[in-house]
Amino acid sequence: MSHFIAEPKQGVPFVSVQIMAKLINKVGIENVLLELTQRLKHDFARWDEFDKSPRYAAHSPDGVIELMPVSDGEMFSCKYVNGHPKNTFKELQTVAAFGILSDVDSGYPVMISEMCLLTALRTAATSALVAKYLAPKHSTTLTLIGNGAQSEFQALAFKAVLGITHIRLYDIDKNASKKAYNNLSGYGLNITICNSAEEAVQSAHIITTCTADKKNATILTSDMIPQGVHLNAIGGDCPGKTELDSQLLTRANVFVEYEPQTRIEGEIQQMSSSFDVTEFHKVINKQTPGRTSNNELTIFDGVGFASEDFTALVYIKDALVAAGEFELLDLITQQADPRNLFSVLNSTQPSKTTKQEQVA
User: Fold this and answer.
1) What are its E.C. numbers (predicted)?
2) Is the entire prediction scored with pTM above 0.85?
C-alpha cells in the first residue's frame, strides 16, 4: 500500500481547515498555485487514464448538493460539495466541501480533507492553466466580475502563472469588491474597482465571470466583448444557471473540461447538442490548437471536474508527507481479527457480572 501516508492501523490522515491554511502559508499561496498548475497539466495529459462520469447532483429550489468521483486505477477520489447562493444571507458560505482520497487496491481511505480552500485553489489553478493556452500572448489585465470567495484566488493564480499586473473588479455588491481590493492590496497588483460590468471589461485581455445566482442570467452581452479576448466563465454552474449571452458562444471557440458534464450545467446548455466545443485535454496533448490568432475570441466554459479535485488531493497528500503535518481520524475499525467486527463492540462495553456474582 505505497500510497498511504500513515499506517492504516494508526488512523486515517485528516487535513483540517487550520492545517490546510498553515500549509498554504508555509509554501506560499502563489507557489502552491504554480505547483498545482503543473500537476493539473500532467493529469490533463493523461486524461484517458481516468475513469470519468458526470457528477451526481441532488437539486433543490435553493441549491444543489453534488458528489464528484473519479479514479485513475490506482487511487480514487470523491468530493462532496454544495452550491447554495442564498447562504450568504444566512451568514453561511455559498460553497462547502470536503473530499476523500482512497487506495484502489484495498479500498482504504488514504486521506480526508477540507476542500473549501482546496477547491478555490484548484479552480484558480485550472483557470490559469487554460488561459496559458487560450489567452492573448503578453496579457496584463484581468477583469473579475463577481468578487466573492473565488476572486482573490483567481487574481493570484493569473499573476503567478501568466504575469498579470492589473486587476479590474466589479460586483453588484460593492462591499465584495472592497473586500477583494483589501485582500489583494499586498500582492503588488494594480487594482481598480469599477462601477459597472461595461466599465470593468474595458481594456481587459482576460475576463473571469464568477457569479453564483441560480438562474439564467446575462452578465456579459455580445456587444460588450471585442474579438481577441479570453473569457473564463467559471460561475457556480448547474442546470438553469448561465452567465453569458448565447451570441458570445456563437462567436467564440469554446473549450470545456468534460463535455458530457458541461452540456448539463455549463454555458453551453443554452446551445443545441450539435454546438461544437473542444475538450481542453486535447490542447494539452497537441491534438488540437488552443488560440490560433490575436483576433480570436476564446471561452473556457469551466464547471469544475472531478479529475481536478483528484489532482489537488494528491498534491496536498504529497505536500503533507513533506511537511509531516496532519491529524489522524479513528475512522476504520482495526480489530485483531478482521472478520470479527462484533468484537469492537465487546471491547468498548463495561464489564458484565453474572447473576451469581450479583447474589454473592
Assistant:
1) 4.3.1.12
2) yes
Cα 260 versus chain centre, distance = 18
Write the DSSP string, 345-360. HHHHSPPP--HHHHH-
Residues 295 and 318 sit within 8 Å (Cβ to Cβ): no
How confident is the model at residue 240, as a pLDDT? 75
Question: Which CATH fold would you assign to the domain 8-117+308-337?
Answer: ornithine cyclodeaminase, domain 1 (3.30.1780)
Beta bridge partners of 242: 216
- Where are the chain's structural domains? 8-117+308-337, 128-305
Q: What residues act catalytically?
A: 237
Nearest to 234, CA basis, from 327, 302, 178: 302
Cell representation of residue 176: 465584495
Chunked mean pLDDT (size 10), the chain, 360 residues: 57 94 96 98 98 92 92 97 87 91 94 96 98 97 96 98 98 96 97 97 96 73 96 80 91 97 92 96 97 95 96 95 85 88 82 52
| Sequence-separated contacts (24+) of 182-186 with Cβ below 8 Å | 183/152, 184/152, 184/155, 184/156
- The partner residues of 144 in beta bridges, in order of sequence, read 169, 208
Closest Cα to residue 159, out of 188, 182, 134?
A: 188
Closest among 210, 211, 164 to 191, alpha carbons compared: 164
Alpha-carbon distance values, 148 to 16, 164, 292, 306 (Å): 22, 20, 32, 22
Q: What is the pLDDT of residue 277?
A: 97
Q: Which CATH fold topology does 128-305 show? A: Rossmann fold (3.40.50)
What is the per-residue pLDDT for 212?
67
